[in-house]
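User: Earlier you gave me the apo prediction for this protein. Now I'd like the version with pyridoxal-5'-phosphate bound, so I can compare the two side by side. Same sequence as before, with the ligand SMILES added.
Assistant: Got it. Here's the input I'm using:
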Amino acid sequence: MDTDLLRAQTPACHDLIHFNNAGAALSPQPVNDALFKHLLLEQRIGGYEAGEATLTAQENFYHAFGRLLHCSPSEIAYIENATRAWTLLLQAMPLAKGDCIITGQSEYASNYMTLLHLAKTRHVRIEVIPNDNSGQICLQSLRQKIDEDVRLIALTHVPSQSGVVHPAAEVGKIAREHRILYLLDACQSVGQIDLNVDEIGCDMLTGSGRKYLRGPRGTGFMYVKQSTQDYLEPPSVDLHSASWTGKDTFTIRDDARRFENWEHYVAGKIALGVAVDYACDLGLNVIEERVRTLAGLLREKLRQLPAINVHENGEGLSGIVTFNCDGHDASALQQYLRGHRINTSVVRHQINQLDFSQRGLPDINRASVHYYNTEQEIDTFCQILSART
Ligand SMILES: Cc1ncc(COP(=O)(O)O)c(C=O)c1O
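And here is the structure of the complex with pyridoxal-5'-phosphate:
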């Protein structure tokens, strides 16, 4: 990996340490070029006309994701963000009173609130599987909770609030054994971990563009396995997701685009396709290795600082590193770092009711690295942090 070249294509790297890649990563120049090019075309010739002139680039979006996830382009839909994609899929399931959805302790706040909403409106039951001592979903508890009412396993692959990587493929095996649908939230894993939907064994997968994929904000996607598509009834239709075939009839599209809207962020979709190609050209296995190495180094150096408590242990962790600093409020520390041109984020207890209550955590700090970060940046980060502690 030519880090110098990658950083040259990421202009903000020159005077910014960006450790907020799990929030929104910095986009590389080719992605920004694609975005701006389309916006300028819209400005010059008109939005509809620009749309018609760039059909091939728009179509590339589906091929790029097919390449990334090892699936067919017809199994991909463009959705404006991961939460919307995830919610649409849940609402599309024919769930009835008494049906059960199994999820995990580290579920993302919006996902879990969608489940609570479904429990309220459709009277489904939610079962939360605890994590084991390593912080991963406990597979034994998962097996024990499966009964004839379970319709779906909905799991977050890499949580927003921890460096843990849940064993997605092992969960997929269990789901297949019991013929239960499996939805994976890959929002934090896509772009940093090599994903293959067949190997994972998921029926549906969702993610956003702005995080480890380095795409623009306001973009996302879903994967829906071909054989699962007809089982799902999109909660709404429009003239793109369906065809009006007669005065009283319509037919829904026969691919994953049945979940799309006609009107959408065309520039963002094109640019996200470019971002996915950029990642695939670098190689997801190479990216994964580099991110793991940098995050491991960061954890090791943070552990050497006396006042810092790192919250994740063990092997096979992701690029997300979480910690607290004794005697320092997480938000104040984030602001201090920002004053030194270091971007990090704060994970709040309030949006992690299940996980943080279980782990007894207050608000915590999060530094998330990507492959374009450097060992030198990690040293600088630790020096600036230790000057404060
Ligand atoms: C694990 C996880 N799932 C879902 C989301 C929601 O993504 P979006 O903001 O694109 O809806 C996030 C965002 O941080 C996340 O971390």
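For your comparison, keep in mind: Residues 81-83, 108, 110, 156, 159-160, 185, 187-188, 208, 220 surround pyridoxal-5'-phosphate (CB under 6 Å).
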